[in-house]
Amino acid sequence: MSLKLLWFVSSQSNLGFLHHGNRSLPCPNLLFQHRAGKGKNQRWKPHFCSLRTHVPGSEGLRRSKVKVTVMSTMAATSSAGEIAMSSEEKVYNVVLKQAALVNKQLRSPRGDVVVPGDLSLLNEAYDRCGEICAEYAKTFYLGTLLMTPERRRAIWAIYVWCRRTDELVDGPNAPHITPTALDRWEARLEDLFNGRPFDMLDAALANTVNKFPVNIQPFKDMIEGMRMDLRKSRYKNFDELYLYCYYVAGTVGLMSVPVMGIAPESLASTESVYNAALALGIANQLTNILRDVGEDAQRGRIYLPQDELAQEGLSDEDIFSGKVTDKWRNFMKKQIKRARMLFHEAEKGVKELNASSRWPVSASLMLYKQILDEIEANDYNNFTKRAYVSKAKKLIALPVAYVRSLVALSTIRSSHRN
Ligand SMILES: CC(C)=CCC/C(C)=C/CC/C(C)=C/CC/C(C)=C/COP(=O)(O)OP(=O)(O)O
């Protein structure tokens, strides 16, 4: 088959990834063509193409053959005809900053911890974080037990802060939460990053952010996600939804990598590992959204791209009436495919993590990804049936993930030897 590849910068933004060797970069503002078919049947198709635009972090990749995976094509042109920055680009800029920061801080670590009280109080705070993590995220907690004690308790402290942030808009006090309350929560976050924690759980996080090259930006962005949730219940397109998913879940990936650590033997760039972590957060959130369509609709919320619903001939009423039709199945198939692509991106990064962090991440990835299989097994009825992974399947996933993480390690080692 002969392929004619054309490529140029366009006013469209293709949300996709560009793969080159062990690097994986998002590629905004690229349109490329693989001419399949003839005449009227000719179609735009994602395929191998060459790159002729500036993709952040792509230096050195110009004019080389790369593989591009496209997740969506959407207009990102302002009324004035300028190319607007897509959410993916904005988020990618955060990824670059985080990666640069980690590289810098690893070279010159911060000063010592400023936490009030003595060491035993701090230990108590970390233990409490562990208890909370064990209570609300059992499987993940078990996985963290494989990490070194220092990493494990840092992950618990991050988990607890995220949980408390989420509780603000999802917990029992949610109806009383105002943007001002979120502003106060953000001021408290800044205080703890400056070594002035408000309570003991904050003190555990203050200690963590001092020990590991964790940056405040993803934490602030998560609070921004909560603000977004307060003011918004519809998402025009995937670009808007992507930003929301970054805020509420992609950020968790960015917060975790500095603690989990990148394997010393890894050859991957820091950005590519951060990208994988971001992809995992977003894939998890999209899966969560697809699982909870019915529950969210009962609260008047639709976390689905409105333009893609319309393309399938679906409207809000179809979601509220909750009937599984062929239109709905088609829509869901596409959404599941996109989530799986993101899981696939994430998988590539897991093997670059420190050995002790690989297993818990791999296990939670497998378990979350299986929710998508369960939605399919429920014939896409996510209105009245909750897709869940059975205990038996969970038990199988754990050793499988463990073996995979060992295989990943030997693959990295042997590629070093060769
Ligand atoms: C892949 C690499 C390189 C690193 C891993 C980096 C990490 C840990 C990424 C994971 C990010 C993550 C856990 C995001 C949260 C996603 C999410 C939708 C959580 C849902 O939480 P709950 O609402 O408690 O879930 P359930 O409703 O399923 O209980």
From TrEMBL:
UniProt keyword list: Carotenoid biosynthesis, Isoprene biosynthesis, Transferase
Species of origin reads Gossypium mustelinum
The EC code for this enzyme is 2.5.1.32
Q: Name one GO cellular component term.
A: plastid
- Which CDD domains does the entry link to? Trans_IPPS_HH
Q: Which family does it belong to?
A: Belongs to the phytoene/squalene synthase family.
Is Translocase found in the keyword set?
A: no
Name listed for the protein in its UniProt record: 15-cis-phytoene synthase
Q: Name one GO molecular function term.
A: 15-cis-phytoene synthase activity
Q: Which GO terms describe its biological process?
A: carotenoid biosynthetic process
Q: What class of enzyme is it?
A: transferase
Pfam families xrefs:
SQS_PSY
Q: Which InterPro entries match?
A: Isoprenoid_synthase_dom_sf, Squ/phyt_synthse, Squalene/phytoene_synthase_CS, Trans_IPPS_bact-type, Trans_IPPS_HH
Which reaction is recorded as catalysed by this protein?
A: 2 (2E,6E,10E)-geranylgeranyl diphosphate = 15-cis-phytoene + 2 diphosphate
Q: In which pathway does it act?
A: Carotenoid biosynthesis; phytoene biosynthesis; all-trans-phytoene from geranylgeranyl diphosphate: step 1/1
